[in-house]
Amino acid sequence: MKILLKNGQVLDEQTGKLIKKDILIVGEMIAKIAAEIEDEEAEVIDVDGKFVSAGFIDMHVHLREPGFEKKETIETGTYAAARGGFTTVACMPNTRPPIDSVEIVQDILAKAEEAGYARVLPIGAITIRQLGQELTDMEALKAAGVIAVSDDGVGVQSSKVMKEAMRKAHSLGLPVVAHCEDDTLAKGGCVHDGEFAKRYGLQGIPSEAESIHVARDILLAEDIGVHYHVCHISAEQSVRLVREAKARGQKVTAEVTPHHLLLCDEDIPEPDAMYKMNPPLRSKKDRAALIQGLKDGTIDIIATDHAPHMVSEKAQGMELAPFGVVGLETAFPLLYTHLVLTGELTLAELVEKMTRKPAELFGLPYGVLAEGKSADITVIDLEEERPVDPNTFKSKGRNTPFSGWQCKGWPVLTIYRGNITWDQADIVVTFEE
Ligand SMILES: NC(=O)N[C@@H](CC(=O)O)C(=O)O
Ligand SMILES: [Zn+2]
Ligand SMILES: [Zn+2]
């Protein structure tokens, strides 16, 4: 099977400019990239004028299966990924049961393979049942295919357990991916401890609930030398701590979500669970620090923290609804329109944080558009403008604060391992729960 993508616009690594290229895919691989390719046997797809990128990589996704299939399944979550231009997603362990056993890892990999929409890289739990007490059998989890360990969904409260986890993970070459949250500071809060919380008399979650864990973990990791990665970084203090650790040469990395880059607590119009996520949307100053951190390399990558919940759950309101928002299907158009077109980030910077960088950080052989690589390709229309419409989502989750936001940069074609996994012509409005 051969596919020839004709007349695409590809980013030139050196200049950051777009140049016209043809791309020939043979089987699962990129066989050739050149100014002009002809091939009689290939199915030709003319992508004239469209932006062609390496498939996006999202290192932080909640696929919800097993256990929460009403929120999302591996099939719907990876289809949503394909629609968003993603070809690789790492899935977090807070399923039921959690990803703390070899059987669950194998089951996820088998279901992902069967669905065929994207490569799924499971992240194993740090502690058994994510209870924060006893370490999982990381060696067995690694052999089964996990690419990192995390207790995402909750912070590891015990410093002793975290230290042991880092030692173990480091000995196995596994990164520790940390959800940073000190329960004694965060419990009971539903939004950032700032302007919005004050105005509505809601219990706040202070920035230090996150940054205390970031500081603690950087100290713990210092001698161990483990690759320590901060999940969904949200506070200015945390960015500062990561920057300092990097400057000292420590292997500390961080990710930021589209919602923390684009919104702050003052943007929340009224108590509405669509704006409820963990960590919460912070202050204007924090948001500015995140953009700065992304630009200067302190924050390495963008990850969506795609966290689907049911409509009925989100309807419980700000205080009772579960934390989390979806992100896979809107990440690129939102960031392209509201950070690149506004001049805060270049297209090359944005793409790098969603392709080459995450691959580099986690040692994955993907994320670059090059001959001999897996044919993971995203084709994007940088011109067509449309509002975010949750009714069109392929995810089961409809929980986004960005409904109605006008965006350019919609993925029109996604190819994963040489197979078309998303084709915009498919768009149908679906809504079911
Ligand atoms: N981010 C969230 O608000 N929610 C995530 C958990 C998490 O990422 O910590 C979820 O699983 O729903
Ligand atoms: Zn988390
Ligand atoms: Zn998460």
Automatic annotation (TrEMBL):
Binding site for substrate: 62-64, 94, 278, 309, 323-324
SUPFAM superfamilies tied to this protein: Composite domain of metallo-dependent hydrolases, Metallo-dependent hydrolases
Gene Ontology cellular-component annotations: cytoplasm
KW Zinc (keyword) present: yes
First and last residue of the signal peptide: none
Name of the top EC class for this enzyme: hydrolase
The protein's name in its UniProt record: Dihydroorotase
Organism: Thermoflavimicrobium dichotomicum
